[in-house]
């Protein structure tokens, strides 16, 4: 682009100021001050976000989804596109393999971009930690281990039968056919538990803590204390009474129906899945879903396969 000298000078000053600001933003947030929640949808992530967002040092916003597209450059299993995403991934991989140091350079660039963006969100918040609660990060556990190996991770899981019931009733109003016709929801129910169970069994993410939804609502103090202890944060008892401390009503990414009905965790939703089963078909689908996941996955998630199956069988 050709410009006159005056415009060149303005452009130079603007570029220098922008670069300086970007570097400053990156300095605002280190990996060690980033908390990432890894879970399935309908697992209690919104509750966890409100509890942790009540901490005086933690800033959070409705689901950023930032790490999913960022990690697409590092893998070939996430998406399709009009330009053939699979071919693009293979081409990028070949290019990186034949260019010395390019893979490290690209990973470093993506890392600076996401940390800089999180850091920008922190500006004006008066806090020093950022919490990214985005469901479906189960898809990118391996990539996160490469991109942000020093970040803090919370692996949140919930009874898979309760997750199934919540997705079915909340998102699809009891319509099995419509739910099973959406690939992303099928992945939530079939891929999500397997990915989470694999991480819990292998512990690839170095700075992580595992939570169960059932423990979070019945023993919130102990659950939050385990998170704070693991990441070097001071536990603040008032976090449990999240009340009006964090509200995201002006967004499509928070379901306000239950989260703002209460001011602290409640356990009334733990066994609600049982009351949702109203027909023999419902019962058969729940039984088949549990069988599909199998004892190993259920066990690694921290639940008793036989006990859950027995609970299904005893429902009338």
Q: What does this protein look like?
A:
The protein is of the alpha/beta class and 316 residues long. Helices cover 56% and strands 8% of the residues. It has 15 helices and five strands. The protein has helices at 5-28, 45-53, 67-72, 85-97, 102-122, 141-147, 160-171, 176-180, 183-202, 213-218, 220-231, 256-259, 272-276, 280-301, 305-314; strands at 34-38, 58-60, 129-133, 152-157, 208-212. It has a five-stranded parallel sheet with strand order 2-3-1-4-5, sandwiched between helices. α1 crosses α5 (102-122). It starts with a helix and ends with a helix.
Give a brief outline of the structure.
The chain is 56% helix and 8% strand.
Strand content: 5-15%
Overall geometry comes to: globular
Alpha-carbon distance between the termini? Answer: 74 Å
**Count the helices. How many?**
15
Q: Give me the Rg, rounded.
A: 22 Å
Taking pLDDT < 50 over at least 5 consecutive residues as the criterion, the unreliable ranges are 1-7, 10-14, 16-27
- Mean of residue pLDDT values: 89
Biggest sheet overview: 5 strands, parallel
Structural class, from helix and strand content? alpha/beta
Helix content: 55-70%
Order of helices and strands: HEHEHHHEHEHHHEHHHHHH
Arrangement of strands in the largest sheet:
2-3-1-4-5
DSSP strand count: 5
